[in-house]
User: Fold this.
Amino acid sequence: MSKIMIVDDNRDIVETLKTIMEMENHQTEEAYNGEEFLGKVESARPDLVLLDVMMPGLKTKEILARLKERKLDLKIILVTVVRFSDQEKRILMTDFNIRDYITKPFDVPELITRVRAVL
Amino acid sequence: MKAKILVVDDEPINVRLITEILTADYEIIEASGGKEAIEKMISEKPDIVLLDIMMPEINGYEVCKKIKQNELTRFTPVVMVTALSESEDKVLAIEAGADDFLTKPINFIELITRVKSLLRGKHFYDQLIESRERIAQQNEALQKARDELEVRVRERTAELTKANEALECSNEFSKTANIKLKKADEIKTQFLSVVSHELRTPLTPIKAQLQMILAGYFGELTEKQKKSLDMIMRNTLRQDRLVGDILDISKLEAGEMKFMMTRSNLNEVIVNAVETMIPLANPKNVILTLKQDIIPEILLDKDRITQVIVNLINNALKFTDSGGTIDVELSGAKDCAIIKVKDTGIGIKKEDQERLFRPFVQVDSSYGRKYEGSGLGLAISKGIITFHGGKIWIESEEGKGSTFQFTIPYIYENKDEKVKVNLFE
Ligand SMILES: Nc1ncnc2c1ncn2[C@@H]1O[C@H](COP(=O)(O)OP(=O)(O)OP(=O)(O)O)[C@@H](O)[C@H]1O
Ligand SMILES: [Mg+2]
Assistant:
């Protein structure tokens, strides 16, 4: 059992991800924007973060930069509508510790596979 | 033209005398009194006046004064003719403004000389006046020219200033226009990314929840429930594809499509694409084959080229009946790779072939048509191939089958390197 932090501004998506993660026997914690996430993350100490791209408020790059500043070694999977190239993935992995990404609307089995692989 | 001499005397005999002497060389005008003399000064404009002093009514001095006071006549020489050479007469004459004297009895030679010399003076004077007038005129013209010049300079300066201002303005304008254009571009990019985010967000829980229900996570499903949910799922996926396609075509048309050009193995790309399509071909009883030359690694967007190949195979599958074949072939020409997707399907009429590459165009666009789709696949494929510098075209015969072909030129170097992560935020 691991602790998964779900960060998304859309409540239905948060709830859906929560259901899927609970089905996988994980413990979950939610945040609905970047500020809330940054405020909770240190005490929550999640094993994995499912981080939405394009939330209102703090931009993803800003969130990632602040995490890097605080030297929080978190495993992150981005949940996004954007496709990344291999080079972009490499940059995201080496510079921001992004382990993987999944595009919306995602496939449940695919999400489960990727989460298992990262954990 | 003869010079005019006005002879003023109340004694006709005197007038006749003088006239006789002068009439050969001059035009003589007579006046018998002061009043008449003054009138004729104005009407006849004589060049010289011979004026008798002793006259009734107005005497010569008065006449002379009047002549010299009038602006129009004051420069006409006046010769006073006196009976006596008395100095008092002369003083009065000078005071009256006379130019010369003649004493009676008139000495003819003296008369002629005086007249001549006075006329010369008058002539000089006239010339002087004339030249003065000319100078004045010239001055005036000069002044006018100067004024005009000044006005023109002022106008020109104003024009220049205005032109300068206009230039500055247009500079400013083009600056703002540029800024606006950039802004519009940013807005366009921003708009497309927001739209793609907003359209896909609601599909995310729909698809995931459906998948969980269909997978039985929330309990057994009856046959009817399953059939219903399958339909919802099919349409959800179709909606998702459509959103993707519409965004793709919008981005391509707006020049906002993000291409990730890397040197890639096209052989591998094609093998993968064909392999993903085999599971769709088998149940339709269509045979999908692949033949290929080994070609060099070239610059391309792997995902986008895969998208094109999948589009073409999808079309071929859609329009080819059971028992048909789809042959995919990759061959290497001198400076480009050629990819062919050949089917034994329904084929396309000549007149329909060209327009199919336009968005939303389908041969059968009737309501409730047989084949699913929205007519975007070929338009997107064309956009992608065009970006790669290639061409895409059809060879087809109705009822026999179609061959779609496209080329990708061999390009090895990526000119604009610098990879930046774009999260579209
Ligand atoms: N292999 C083929 N054989 C016969 N007709 C074809 C073939 N490929 C395309 N067409 C014709 O061209 C039209 C446009 O094709 P296109 O791929 O652009 O759209 P679509 O397949 O109808 O929809 P979409 O690709 O958006 O799902 C098709 O509707 C069909 O009429
Ligand atoms: Mg199609």
User: Anything to note?
Assistant: Chain B touches chain A at residues 193, 196-197, 200-201, 203-209, 211-212, 215, 217, 240, 258, 260, 262, 303, 419, 421-425 (CB under 8 Å).
